[in-house]
Amino acid sequence: MSLAETALPFTDIRNLVKSFPGADEAALAAVRAREAQLTKPAGSLGRLEEISEWVAAWSGNARPKVTRPLVAIFATAHGIADKGVSAYPSSVNRQMVENFAAGGAAINQICRINDIGLKVFDLAVDIPTPAITEEDAMDEANCAATMAYGMEALAGGIDMVCLGEMGIGNTTVAAAVLMALFGGTAAEWVGRGTGVDDQGLVRKQAAVEAAVARLNGEKDPLEILRRIGGREIAAMAGLIIAARLQRVPVIVDGFVTTAAAAVVYAMDPAGLDHCLFAHVSAEAAHERALQIMGKTALLNLGMRLGEGTGAALAAGLVKAALEAHNSMATFADAGVSGKDA
Length: 341
Ligand SMILES: Cc1cc2ncn([C@H]3O[C@H](COP(=O)(O)O)[C@@H](O)[C@H]3O)c2cc1C
Ligand SMILES: O=C(O)c1cccnc1
Description:
This protein has 341 residues and is an alpha/beta fold. Helix content is 51%, strand content 8%. This is Nicotinate-nucleotide--dimethylbenzimidazole phosphoribosyltransferase.
């Protein structure tokens, strides 16, 4: 299918968000009932128990399983990268796409060890979107088409999806989107990304301020995404929306993927209930975004890579949680004494 055929205008996307299903309460209750029977002290698997409940609630399976997990990496280029806001050049984007294909990136190793599929989606990786300090990144048709393209990552029976991205300059774009959505100052949203020096940080802050100023107070989340976002952020926002409708749990990675999630959150504060936040990135403002949305990340490993690496690590824990839930013996099966028996 061509992008033009799959393109949705923003009104259609708003309607999709309005039709979001809630949690599957029956599946959730079934998991809680089984959890209570398993041979361990009640609650002793901590957040692993919550993970089993979360997969059940959002996949609609009383015996939650993940058999086809995928890391979807959206790769693109940003005009803003030419303004000295990243420690690396945009040529890295295509080189990393080739590295993903050759199996040489960090994400390849984490996917292999956790038996997770990996697909890279090329969002015109050699054609940067205009610098958001000066021009809108996308027009509506393009932004909606890119969101629709992101939705296609669920094709082929994917039953859990991890968000990943590659796009030099995208921590600047993510900071601009988050500031426009949630307020605050550029200094509060900007961090060192790939490792910019102090002067780079000042340039980044100025770029975020200029991009947000261009919006003249625009608060519509899709307009913010279109005007000062980027293609990978649009595709990931689309994927989060499609996953909710198709009952596929989503694992959000770090700062950049959280900016995509924040667009959906701003449209519907319950719209991320099917998303697990994998880790707190070392990118300073990530924790701030999580706090605003009331999310508690699973891991804190000091990582600041992107590519979906944190999400893929969390996916390994999800698999472990589900294996424990589904394969442990019950007190009755194993003849183990229950509490105070
Ligand atoms: C070799 C390399 C591999 C990467 N993999 C992810 N990123 C990460 O760094 C970029 C964002 O940081 P900034 O906003 O500072 O450019 C994104 O491409 C992100 O995915 C990488 C960056 C580099 C250099
Ligand atoms: O947390 C992230 O997503 C991140 C941080 C630094 C560079 N790229 C991505």
